Amino acid sequence: MENLERFIEYDPAGFTLREAIIEAKRCLHCAKPHCRMGCPIENEIPDFIEAMAHGNLGTASTIIAKRSNLPAVCGRVCPHEKQCEGSCILNKQNKGIKVGKIERFIADMDGELVLTPAVIKEKKSGQIAVIGSGPAGLTVAGDLAKMGFSVTVFDAQQEAGGVLMYGIPEFRLPKQVVRREVKKIENLGVKFRLNTMIGPNLTLDNLFEQGFDAIFIGTGNALAKSLPLPGTKLPGVVQATYFLQMVELANQGSIDPIEVPIHNGDNVVIIGAGNTAIDAARTAVRREAASVTIINRDRESHIAALASEVAMAREEGVKFISLRSPVELIGEYFVTGVLCRVIDDPGETKELMPTDKTTILPANKVIIAIGQRPASRIIGSTKGIEVDKAGYVKTRDIPYGMSMRSGVFSGGDVVNGPATVVKAMKDAKLVAKGIAQYVEAKKLMEKCGLKMTD
Ligand SMILES: Cc1cc2nc3c(=O)[nH]c(=O)nc-3n(C[C@H](O)[C@H](O)[C@H](O)COP(=O)(O)OP(=O)(O)OC[C@H]3O[C@@H](n4cnc5c(N)ncnc54)[C@H](O)[C@@H]3O)c2cc1C
Ligand code: SF4
């Protein structure tokens, strides 16, 4: 009861119970729901909103769980304005339903009060190893466990969640929420082997020898892209993903906060203007940097990050300088600034033109946020898995998600490139079905005394 009272008041950024019900009651429960069409995993949005409108939180949560293993995460970090909320019919009157906040409220209530305890299905024969515990791995693990398979998740990190735990900052996605979602998946019977790197010492072949019938690789884009410019090796230059990870490790008490590369009073310049750059900038502000500036070589109107994220960063004091292309990171013993070429903008319909003019932005810390790519640790330590030129795993359509090596599946960012949480989940849901088909066929053949071949 104590918990329920806390939720009726709930946290300021989320809905209270009263607000959630009032918002849900506004939904028209459309016959052709555009919100659902806008959702990559086709969540039954009108149905869970209707249940919420009647105060049936358990029913609402059960409806969500049919499509999603991570609703409290999606309710917070999905780009709703581009998906369900952006597609809501009521936007025509500027009164779109706040689907994300309703989903978040339902998921948080269920997470805290356990309105829908996990039902562990009767076990099927078939063991699956999942490498990587990001949204893709967690989705595959949750879906296969719900089908009755035995699933073990391996992750190199000390806590599960992938980018949810070590990338997206605490102020946007509290780590208690991620832990709660992981616990729900654990309650389905999924085992977690953390602090366990796959490749080169423990390989896919070793996992098959241990008795796994199929393996899913959901290792994401672990490597930050480097900037091919002079000066990037200077002390004071860091990768955004490394910085964000160090902040989380310091929050967990695993490292001394002094080891986090950005400190009180720093003048920080960030190269890149996607969502990772914005997260790094807003985190640097919270570490009390004296100034935080994002430089972008494109037009202001072409900033890659979500408009809502950019607006919040500006409100917090982050400066944006567009039409500057970095040429060199300068400094003798330590970085002291970024030399930039000024780009001329002759108008929206014309091409941008680099000029001869350069300018220096002073900085004692430079954060690089120009994207990530997959690591080759697993691919390099096993045979038969093909990747494209950029290192992304090649997969087949039948069974969905299987790599060129029989029994090894892959999905999420390591196949499709950097995307979003819900897109990794969408792909992973299809791969989970592909794995189930494969393992069922394999088990049937084993019963008949036959072996699977390529
Ligand atoms: C800073 C940042 C902010 C973002 N913000 C958002 C957002 O607000 N909304 C949104 O929708 N998307 C966001 N994204 C994108 C989103 O997080 C990713 O698209 C998503 O996490 C990809 O999921 P994944 O499961 O494929 O990989 P990841 O989440 O990258 O998970 C991969 C996991 O594999 C593990 N791993 C890797 N190699 C090995 C190995 N050899 N052995 C064992 N384990 C291994 C890693 O430790 C990691 O836990 C953001 C990304 C970043 C970097
Ligand atoms: S489109 Fe909007 S009003 Fe219609 S069902 Fe979806 S959320 Fe409700």
TrEMBL record:
This protein's source sits in the domain of life called: Bacteria
Pfam families, per the entry: Fer4_20, Pyr_redox_2
Q: In what residue span(s) does the FAD/NAD(P)-binding domain sit?
A: 127-428
What molecular functions are annotated in GO for this chain? iron-sulfur cluster binding; oxidoreductase activity
Domain Dihydroprymidine dehydrogenase intervals = 13-110
Which PANTHER family does the UniProt record give? GLUTAMATE SYNTHASE [NADPH] SMALL CHAIN (PTHR42783), GLUTAMATE SYNTHASE [NADPH] SMALL CHAIN-RELATED (PTHR42783:SF3)
Q: What is this protein called?
A: Glutamate synthase (NADPH/NADH) small chain
